[in-house]
Amino acid sequence: MWKVVWATLLLLATVCAQRGYAKETKGAPKVGHVSVVIVGGTGDLAKKYLWQGFFHLYANQVSSGYSFSFYGGGLLPKDKATPFLFEALKGVVCPRELSVERCALVKEQFLKLAEYWQLKTSEDYQALGKHLTEQLTQEGIVEAGRLFYLSVPAFAYADIAERINNSCRPTDGAWLRVVLEKPFGHDFSSAQLLSTQLGTSLKDEEMYRIDHYLGKQVVSKILPFRRENSKHLDPIWNKHHIERVEIVLKETLDARGRIPFYDQYGVIRDVIQNHLTEVMTLLTMGLPANLSDVKEVLRNKLKIFSALQHLDRNCATIGQYQNYNLEVQEELNKTKEYYSLTPTFAGIMVHIDIAQYEKMPIILTSGKMLDERLGYARILFKNDIFCVQSHNSVHCKPKQIVFYFGHGTLQYPAILVSKNLFKPDLMDTEWKEITEHKDVSVLGMPISDYYVLTPTVQREAYAELISHIFQGRKDSFISTENLLASWGFWTPLLHGLAKTSPRLYPGGADNGNMLDFKLLGREVNFANEAVVMIPQDHMGGSGAESFQVMQGKYRSAEMVSAWPEELIVRLAADLQASAEKAVREGGRFHLALSGGSSPLALFQRLARHHYSFPWRDTHVWMVDERCVPLTELDSNFRTLHDHLLQHVKMPYFNIHPMPVQMNQRLCVEEDSGALLYESEINQLVNASSFHFVLLGVGYDGHTASLFPGSKLDAHGDSLVALTESPAKPHQRMSLTLRAINQAQKVGVLVMGKSKHELVTQLSRVKDNPNKWPITGIRPTSGRLVWYIDYDALLG
Ligand code: BG6
Q1: Using CA atoms, how far apart are residues 186 and 491, in angstroms rounded to an integer?
Q2: Distance 213 CA to ligand 1 centre (A)
Q3: pLDDT of amino acid 529
Q4: Cα(646)–Cα(320) distance, rounded to whole angstroms?
Q5: Separation of CA 305 and ligand 1 centre (Å)
Q6: What is the mean pLDDT of the chain?
Q7: Has this prediction a pTM greater than 0.85?
């Protein structure tokens, strides 16, 4: 195997910059031979970016004394795959600084140094390992290191790492670097498992986890920019001056062709957990004293992760482009009934609990099939100047710094500082200021209103990172701790959203303002509430704007059904109508509310949108309560308080929690809490008949805190009873069937795919309250209405 030496000698002769191969000196970094193996070398990523990146590395390094050999590894046999590999290799282009002649020469050598190697079995890896070592001995060259780039699905990582460890480790004193592409897990526990598995074969310093955003020139300049401009930034880089931070990745493409991967991941796992989160930490972390001190950078990043406020599903809005589901059905061979809940769009608000950033919103958003391709991070500063006349004056314009990753109107990467902030310092000779502009606007301001810094030479992220791997620079890669901290932060939200139906959007310009979202306290909601689309093949709808509320019968009572958001809108409107009617007729509205998770969206809707609700004349009662102090998180009253009562103006004496805690103990029969509540109802509620009782139904058919097997008949004429739940906390207080059935209207809210089986089962069973307490709900003279969302109804 003389081609390595031959090719290298030829080049060295041409470039004059001769430096012989280094003699092996143990432990010290050295020049010598580098073997590069791309496992997945004929795949898409390799074709698009990796070979190009390695070619740049080769072109830049070959005259500095290194020699190289390149292997494209894959599952196919050599004769089949070699043409594919060379097809990919032929497409590489030279760095701009190379002359045409030198470019041709370097490229010719590069092609000579590359070959395909089948990497399917352990024996294949053994053969490769043997070959790499033999090559060194035969040619008498010193080994600098071996670089394995795993461009394969993540499930294969652990096996490949083991094979590399068993048979492909380099000779003594040379380095091993194994590069891994995301996804690194699916959530916290899978990431932890993968890390442990990889840890049995590879040392931490041998693993290079790629996040290609860290190779984008603008992203890697965030910390140096903050450092260079610290005299301007230090005083304003805080909650007092920053209105909000936006980190945005908008894409126009769909997920077609990648569905088997994408459908398991969705937008949060695909780009937010990694790319956008990394940008967020770079923008907010404490500036390290030494920017290239990997440990200090990591420490500062981890401080941010540990201060991130826990996210729940109210902190996010999610969407899915309308054709996505069809693509899923096609690519995953699913039936027409299959519905994917994977979001292709998300808007999320994050807060950091440290004094510097307290309450300062950080918005992370990304989506496929949006109107434009654009990525940026924008720091929008507060502008406290009120311009009385000259609205165009520079003082009145937004003050912002934009880290513009590329694409969009500008089409090149740049750091933009609005001129009413400060003139930024040029960081180094690799960056320049642009003063001549095309006539474009960036985020609402003409480009001429910004100072614009851009890299002197634009470089592709993968090429940058490949050169960092070669230099052993670990600061541009994701360490295990960083990875786990990020998954630790995102996993609860991902689990919280797992059953949420994303809002459907048509894609492209037609999205209009459908995906706009607004921030309210710690919550994020779509700004435009009204549009809920139903895919045509699902409900026979007639196009993008169609949405429906279906009315029908369920268990021979009335039923209203819609997609979750629309259903909640409808239920809230029905409640308000009942309240207005009751107040008109009798001056009061008596409403009894249940616990559980289904009514949360209703409470929020009422709190946020029903400002004309007659709260002043509404009395709120509890349908049931857990025997825990009212301040505990699992108390139904506490939930009601947090999500509704604290947000509306209602006299305190109209609020009627159940007296589950008396004499400093919980639900003790002799304390007569149930009797007390009953007499309060008798005193205040006309004929003890609530105007509206809102119920839910549990998987076992329970409603209120009336569970299967409880002897409901034993409640006799009581309105309130102590009951037992099979789930913890076991003790409960509940309205009885009698109290509920006396109501003027009873609504039963059932939401979510997980209730589908129950809904189907209940549609078939006869009334049997002891087995299915919900079937005992038969208002004597009032109305029963089932509010069932499409997920629960259709599965
Ligand atoms: C990748 C995601 O990591 O990043 C893709 O898997 C996404 O879904 C891409 O399109 C975006 O990267 P860029 O560099 O085009 O912004």
Answers
A1: 9
A2: 9
A3: 58
A4: 33
A5: 23
A6: 91
A7: no
